[in-house]
Write a structure and sequence with these properties.
Layout lengths: L1 H7 L2 H5 L2 H20 L6 H26 L7 H16 L2 H28 L5 H20 L10 H8 L8 H19 L1 H11 L1 H6 L4 H27 L11 H10 L11 H20 L4 H24 L2
Helix pairs in contact: 3-14, 4-9, 4-12, 4-13, 4-14, 5-6, 5-7, 5-12, 6-7, 6-12, 8-12, 9-10, 10-12, 13-14, 13-15
């Protein structure tokens, strides 16, 4: 009977990831719950604003997803985001040349930190949790030394502000376009290139991927560099959105980025996941944050919720992997 039921299902339903479907159902539920607390929750203007806010998390979570697909973790994200924001804002103060170089320089600084992480994990065989936590502390120390422990006085360049708050296409914020471009690049990388297949292969079983001829160390190093670059780009966008950088501005994005990825069905143990799921996870986390703000939930309460989600998904995927 079950075989006949499965045969009766349309092909597109068979391809749907249950985790992705669940995430979209939860988004629908959150929209209904939000409309109860506020009449404006379902207005086009409010939803567009939420999509704009989600874009910053979406860019950052894209890099985190690649790292998690490897079965690794990047805990340097908070201060890589801050480094991207601070260095781009600092360079923007050096006249016209600085304004032109601000965005690429901020991204470059994040990529360098990501390369350090990648070399540590891939070539020195340091656990990703340890090396990324260490680079996060080093980045924090460097930024504190640079600012003297105070909020930086540097301002974002006009290009940074336009990228984060402007409208190239009427009705569509530039931040959303940036996320769409990053997302399209990530999807292409994962589904249309040998590099993407290598990422999945390493996440499933690194030793088997190595024996099949994949240069696993190079792939791991590049993935961490991409993660650092995207985290820094998220920082650039956040600085443009706020018109300036701020100390610890990336701290609020670590747990939401991980939660968005695992909520979207990416296995935190690596080897499985789709970018559509990450998009759903980002939207789900953004709407959840919005509802918690309306409910005046304190920050520690939000962090507890994210932690519970991550632990729950880890237990779920751990059991699935054990039964394979």
């Amino acid at each position: 009977m079950s075989d006949m039921t499965s045969m009766a299902k349309p092909a597109f339903l068979k391809r749907l990831d249950p985790a992705v479907t669940t995430a979209f159902v939860c988004i629908f539920v959150l929209l209904l719950v939000g409309s109860i607390y506020s009449r404006n929750f379902l207005s086009p203007e409010y939803l567009l604003q939420q999509l704009k806010v989600a874009s910053f998390l979406g860019v950052i979570a894209s890099g985190m997803m690649l790292v998690i697909l490897l079965g690794q973790i990047d805990l340097s994200l908070p201060w890589v985001v801050t480094v991207g924001a601070m260095t781009s804002s600092a360079i923007a103060g050096y006249g016209d040349a600085g304004a032109i170089l601000a965005i690429p320089f901020g991204i470059f600084c994040g990529m360098v930190i990501g390369l350090v992480n990648g070399v540590g994990v891939a070539y020195l065989r340091i656990p990703s949790m340890i090396i990324t936590l260490a680079t996060n502390a080093v980045a924090q120390g460097l930024m504190v030394v640079y600012t003297g422990g105070f909020s930086p006085k540097d301002s974002a360049s006009p290009a940074m502000r336009y990228l984060a708050t402007g409208f190239t296409i009427p009705g569509i914020p530039n931040a959303v376009i940036c996320w769409a471009v990053v997302g399209a690049g990530t999807v292409f990388l994962l589904t249309r290139t040998t590099f993407g297949r290598a990422v999945y292969g390493i996440g499933n079983r690194e030793r088997a991927a190595y024996l099949s001829g994949i240069d696993t160390r190079r792939v791991v190093m590049i993935v961490f560099a991409i993660s650092g670059a995207l985290a820094a780009f998220g920082g650039v966008l956040l600085a443009g959105y706020a018109s300036k950088a701020a100390q610890s501005m990336g701290d609020a994005y670590l747990l939401p980025a991980i939660a968005a990825v695992v909520l979207g069905g990416t296995s935190i143990l690596g080897g499985r996941g789709s970018y559509l799921g990450t998009v759903a996870g980002v939207m789900l986390i953004t709407l959840l944050q919005s509802i918690l703000s309306v409910m005046q939930m304190p920050e520690f309460g939000r962090q507890i919720i994210y932690g519970i989600v991550i632990v729950g998904m880890l237990l779920l995927y751990g059991r699935e992997r054990a039964h394979r």
